[in-house]
């Protein structure tokens, strides 16, 4: 999953793809590199990021989604917590909703997922992007994320959502300390018991910067690939990344070592 942030303030690439034509070019380049999903977001979810009004978020993402829908058959994901915008994006060509809120506070998002049959990424987050890094606490982060997934899958069934629509994301960096993130990476296999594909979004995140003592997100690529390798070893099937070509190369090499062939990605 290639990350396409059409925002001025995302932590790694904010401001680079605000122009719709430039954003589309970037998406097509990621597809050429091997991206199998393009995730388009118009509201930064970095820690302490301000909320973005619906109209502004719409102006940022909809021209890009319309253009991509006409230019490629690669699935498009809309990264939003707003059901109204998600519906517009689905009508314009998106087929997946990447919702960092997991529908916890907005049941109408779940109604939309049930009605449309779209793909839906359920991510764990403690708090919200404005508050999530204000001293996050857990008794046992691995157990609590596990319980969250069990609870949400039950809720989705109650809303008429087929579990085949769901992907689970442990939410690296969303209401977690450095040690919480590392604990989740150590125990990713725990979540395979839910029978749903796992997504890992660790690319260039601040916990890597803490480990490396490196404040420049663009210099966290190699360490991000280590997280991809860890995910591959523990059953992750989808990686949300900035560095698509390098990630594809890691996946292909891992598949060769594991004797799974070297497919054309």
Report the average pLDDT across residues. Answer: 91
Radius of gyration: 17 Å
CATH topology category name: TIM Barrel
Structural class: alpha/beta
How many DSSP-defined strands?
8
Overall 3D shape: globular
CATH architecture group name? Alpha-Beta Barrel
> Order of SSEs, N→C?
EHEHEHEHEHEHEHHEH
Biggest sheet features = 8 strands, parallel
Helical residues, percent: 40-55%
Q: In the CATH hierarchy, what is the class?
A: Alpha Beta
The CATH fourth-level homologous superfamily: Dihydropteroate synthase-like
The low-pLDDT segments are none
Describe the structure.
The chain has 265 residues and is an alpha/beta fold. It has one domain (2-257): Dihydropteroate synthase-like (TIM Barrel, Alpha-Beta Barrel), CATH 3.20.20. It contains nine helices and eight strands. The chain has helices at 20-33, 54-71, 83-92, 107-116, 141-158, 178-186, 206-212, 221-233, 244-257, and strands at residues 2-5, 38-41, 76-79, 96-99, 119-123, 166-169, 198-200, 238-239. Strands 1-2-3-4-5-6-7-8 form an eight-stranded parallel beta sheet, covered by helices on one side. Strand 2, helix 2 and strand 3 (76-79) form a beta-alpha-beta unit. The chain is globular, with a radius of gyration of 17 Å. 43% of the residues are buried.
